Amino acid sequence: MSKTWKGAKDFVGLEEVAKIEFLVPLFAEALGTFLLVLIGCASCITWVEGQSPSVLHIAFTFGLAVAALAQFLGPISGCHVNPAVTVGLLVSGNCTFLKALCYIVCQSCGAIAGSVVLKMLTPAPQVNLGLGATDLGVGVEAGQGIVMEAIVTFLLVLVVHAVTDPRRSDTKGWAPLAIGLAISVSHMAAIPFTGSSMNPARSLGPAVILTQWSNQWVYWVGPLAGGAIAGALYRMGFRSTKESEEASYDF
Q1: Mind telling me which residue stretches traverse the membrane in this protein (predicted)?
Q2: Residue 242 pLDDT level (bands cut at 50, 70, 90)
Q3: What is this structure's pTM?
Q4: Could you tell me which residues come within 8 angstroms of residue 160 by beta carbon, excluding any fewer than 6 positions away?
Q5: What local confidence, expressed as pLDDT, does residue 251 receive?
Q6: Would you state the pLDDT for residue 14?
Q7: Banded model confidence at residue 237, pLDDT cuts 50, 70, 90
Q8: 20 to 30 A from 62, CA-CA: which of 24, 42, 72, 190?
Q9: Which of 195, 121, 116, 214 is nearest to 152 (CA)?
């Protein structure tokens, strides 16, 4: 009974979130998602009608933005900046339930704040052309969008687990770059299908500011499912079996 209680207590994580020091990683997650949405969605703005930014431009903006944020915020909060990543780490046992819940709230608030600032900085004609809101491509059905979002998020969360596995020493120092490249290559593949959200908070921010809720549920179901599956698979069989004294990247 005592082991069961200890396991449940560790899963919930009440002691962790009750500490005043926990406010620092919460702020880091809000700040990181704020900057990600502000900078990433800025790359999606159409400045000349009929001449949208290229897929390559958007893909590398998001990928490099996450890589830069991970380098700075990784040791502070783990730099999840994505509810799907947080859910994946929760499923794999690398994040407690209450911590995950608090992170997702802060990520969502940061994303909305990022969209607010981006709207304030953007001229009205460009705002009318969109602020990086995600929606399904022409002819893409909701089910297809969910599967595509789940697949690219699955890849991202697997990479996050692999490069932050404390049993691996070969990935030390490479985590931000590997994660950023995973995001970039996923964007290159998925932007024509879904806009390549991979991140429910990233889709939520522009949707709230522009009040455009078309297919918004797709960008929660797909990424969260993909992240959860990746976390479960990594926990069940994809972990490294090699021991290492220190992690390559600090959660």
Answers
A1: 20-48, 54-73, 100-122, 142-163, 175-197, 217-234
A2: low
A3: 0.90
A4: 85, 88, 89, 179
A5: 36
A6: 75
A7: confident
A8: 24
A9: 195
Type and span of the H or E element at 148: helix 142-163
Q: Give kind and range of the element (H or E) at residue 210.
A: helix 200-210
Measured distance CA(204)–CA(213) in Å, rounded? 9
**Contact between 56 and 195 (Cβ < 8 Å):** no
CA–CA distance, 155 with 82 (Å, rounded to integer): 14
Q: Is 8 exposed, middle or buried (0-12, 13-18, 19+ CB in 10 A)?
A: exposed
Return d(Cα 106, Cα 34) in angstroms, integer.
10
Chain position carrying tokens 């995600």: 134
Report residue 206 as tokens.
């522009």
Contacts of 95 (CB under 8 A, 6+ apart): 78, 86, 89, 103, 251
Please report which helix (H) or strand (E) contains residue 83, including its range.
helix 83-91
Pick the closest to residue 66 from 53, 46, 85 (CA basis). Answer: 85
Asked if pLDDT for residue 18 goes beyond 90, the answer is no
Cα–Cα distance, 240 to 226 (Å, whole number): 21
Cα(67)–Cα(53) distance, rounded to whole angstroms? 21
Non-local CB neighbours of 162 within 8 Å, separated by 6+ positions: 168, 171, 178, 234, 238, 240
